[in-house]
Fold this protein.
Amino acid sequence: MMLYENESNLDRFLRCTTPVVPSLSLPKTQIKNLNSLWYPLESEGVEYFRLSDFWDCFDEWSAYGAGVPILSETGETLVQYYVPYLSAIQIFTSHSALNALRLREETESGESGSETCSDEWRWEGWSSSEEGVDHQEPLDRLGYSYLQYFERCTPYSRAPLMDKIKGLGERHAGLKSLRSVDLSPASWMAIAWYPIYHIPMNRSIKDLATCFLTYHTLSSSFQDVQKEKRERISVGAFGMATYKTQGRLWDNDRLLSLLSVADSWLKQLRVHHHDFTYFTTTPYHL
């Protein structure tokens, strides 16, 4: 784990917790089949990643934590480890992709499509749609709802992210088979990062208890998804909220900016995100 010059602790946290996945190029013959509201028809090339590769990034982090080098106010360097938990996810896709996924899942489960099954499909994790999302009917701009999940358990009752994804994947095969190019710009997820331990131990630094909530787009339609060395895509956080933030260990001005972006995103989609509300209404948040 390296410390780069002029890199803040927040920069290091974002760098060390950003999923980096293989970059794939969509054949030109398939570009014309994309939703023109999501991708310009004149696009010469479209880069994408597989969701299966995206989840693989969290395998080791879920088991051991993601190590983040931290520079204390006294100039001491230590490594803080954070475990990721799935906080929320919304996946919207095209009508054709949705029908193909439903047919595949019904075939594999041996069940026929029913109204009850469809409701579970659309609102996984909620007893009613009104608790999390204001709209039920698909919009052309958003696409068709494939999966929506919002975690409400206490942190100590949650399964690590990979365990949760594997569980959801048993009923939603698209979590493994879908590509970012199949998803609408409204597809996103939020990850809650909780600190577990730091090395060296026995250091009493209040800000090491800070918890983070990061927001990531899952769609290729955003132009700010960055490639590294033309072979990798960094799926960085576009928004963030924090909890138990004290002192000056973190870049508070930037945290406020990222918080504003996350808030605007949720309002735009008319989503009530339970963790976001908790993080932003509890003392010592930014």
Q: What stands out?
A: The mean pLDDT is 79. The chain has ten helices and eleven strands. The longest strand covers residues 77-93.
